[in-house]
Write a structure and sequence with these properties.
Layout lengths: L1 H5 L2 H7 L2 H7 L5 E6 L5 H14 L6 E6 L2 H15 L4 E5 L4 E5 L5 E8 L13 E5 L7 H12 L6 E6 L6 H6 L11 E6 L9 H10 L2 H7 L17 H4 E2 L7 E9 L6 E9 L4 E9 L4 H11 L3 E4 L4 H9 L13 H14 L3 E4 L3 H7 L21 H12 L8 H19 L1
Parallel strand pairs: 1-7, 1-8, 2-5, 2-6, 6-7, 9-14, 10-13, 12-14
Antiparallel strand pairs: 3-4, 4-5, 10-11, 11-12
Helix pairs in contact: 11-12, 13-15
Length: about 425
């Protein structure tokens, strides 16, 4: 840290304004900064990188990550080149990498990357990771848990998360990590508005406020979490549609929706229906690099009564049937996306669809899945992003047909026959 590791508090205060200084002095490993535009997060990030680089051991690596390579270049490259100009040993303009000499004459490596190339950092080690505009990073939890968090393990490195909010997405969940007392996570969160930067004239911010709609100003300048514009599932509300119990009363059927993937995540939802035809999503499966064999083995072991997969992957569907999975046909046509969305929305409206609180990726997709700006027609499909689990949900709920109580015996009979067939096959 600048204040903790490298400079006195008085020196730190000379460099950072009072509110930036609060963040720099935190002793937590993982700091989450939710701030309005022009708060000064870029300058804070550059000072954090500088402070860590000057006092790290030989060969240490620091990485700054923006949503894209172009943003990393435009936001931070020029600043760091200037800040380290006197001690730069080597600068790679193409790869956006600096080798600098620290206070003890040791070499430290500073990398700039775009989130779209996060996989290139897999297997590396860092003493500091700075992530800028976190709310705009797609599939954030996959990149954080599978690539970046392990990269900090051996060094016991730190992470600084910076962003202006963008609806109730993964950044909202990240911001609230400090409240998870049960797991004792080493997080601290900060909230500052544009007004909290003493170098920005209050009259200028007030002028912007008069020009903008309330929600947009609240998000961009006050760093207030608001629902994203153009949401597909605007009926979804955490207060009414989440649950945290483990047993589903009067459960009648166990079904699954599947959206196949490899580079993109494979998305599988474990869904239970009760006798009153309420649906409960109890578990999500969300993993990259999964083969058809991996998927079929996982699904078969879950003993679903019926499975509703993406029909555009016949080889994966065949693999499921080879494993004895009861695969149901999902119809896909030009209207299937719209009609499927309407089914899910109606279930939310009637409070007949509930999501378990542990389904973080599904909740994130529900709160970020949106229509294109300046839609040309009511039937236009949503943006094709943040939708893998939502596709799985749509396949299952738009195809599954609720049953009357008396037909439950047929479901049980089928399940028993299937169990017996699997046992015979095993023998």
């Amino acid at each position: 840290r600048i204040c903790k590791d490298s400079r006195s508090k008085n020196q730190c205060s000379m460099i950072l304004h009072e509110n930036q200084n609060q963040i720099a002095k935190s002793t937590k490993r993982f700091r989450v900064v939710n701030c309005g535009r022009r708060f000064g997060k870029t300058y804070l990030a550059s000072e954090e990188i500088k402070g860590k680089a000057l006092f790290s051991k030989e060969g240490s690596k620091i990485v700054y990550i923006a949503p894209t390579y172009g943003q990393a270049h435009d936001i931070m490259w020029g600043i760091l080149k200037k800040e380290f100009s006197a001690i730069t040993l080597k600068a790679n303009e193409t790869k956006l990498e600096l080798e600098v000499m620290n206070k003890e004459g040791k070499t430290v490596h500073i990398l700039l990357r775009g989130w779209e190339a996060i996989e290139t950092l897999r297997g590396q080690e860092f003493v500091l990771v700075v992530l800028d505009e976190v709310a705009s990073m797609k599939k954030f939890w996959v990149g954080w848990h599978e690539v970046l968090r392990p990269a900090l393990a051996s060094t016991k490195g730190d992470a600084l998360f910076l962003s202006t909010p963008k609806g109730f997405n993964h950044f909202y969940d990240l911001y609230n990590m400090q409240n998870d007392k049960e797991r004792g996570l080493d997080y601290e969160s900060f909230h500052f508005t544009t007004y909290d930067n003493p170098h920005i004239a209050k009259e200028e911010i007030d002028s912007a406020r008069r020009e903008m709609v309330e929600d947009k100003f609240a998000q961009e300048y006050l760093a207030d979490f608001r629902k994203q514009e153009g949401l597909v599932y605007k009926e979804f509300n955490r207060k009414y549609h989440l649950f945290d119990f483990d047993v589903i009363p009067n459960e009648s059927e166990k079904i699954a929706g599947i959206d196949f993937g490899f580079t993109n995540p494979t998305a599988i939802l474990d869904i239970r229906r009760d006798y009153d035809n309420n649906y409960f999503v109890v578990r999500e499966y969300y993993k990259t690099q999964q083969t058809e064999e991996n998927i079929a083995e996982y699904v078969a072991n879950q003993r679903f009564n019926a499975v509703y997969p993406d029909p555009e992957n016949p080889s994966a569907i065949k693999k499921l049937t080879d494993y004895g999975v009861n695969v149901r046909e999902v119809i896909k046509n030009k209207d299937s996306v719209t009609s499927g969305i309407n089914v899910v929305r109606e279930l939310f409206k009637q409070f007949k669809l509930k999501i378990h609180v542990s389904c973080h990726n599904l909740i994130n997709e529900l709160e970020t899945y949106h229509y294109p700006e300046n839609m040309k027609g009511d039937n236009e499909n949503p943006e094709k992003e943040n939708d893998h689990l939502l596709d799985a949900l749509r396949y299952a709920l738009s195809t599954n047909r609720p049953v009357e109580r008396e037909t439950y015996t047929q479901i049980v009979e089928y399940a028993n026959q299937r169990e017996e067939r699997l046992r015979n096959d095993a023998e």
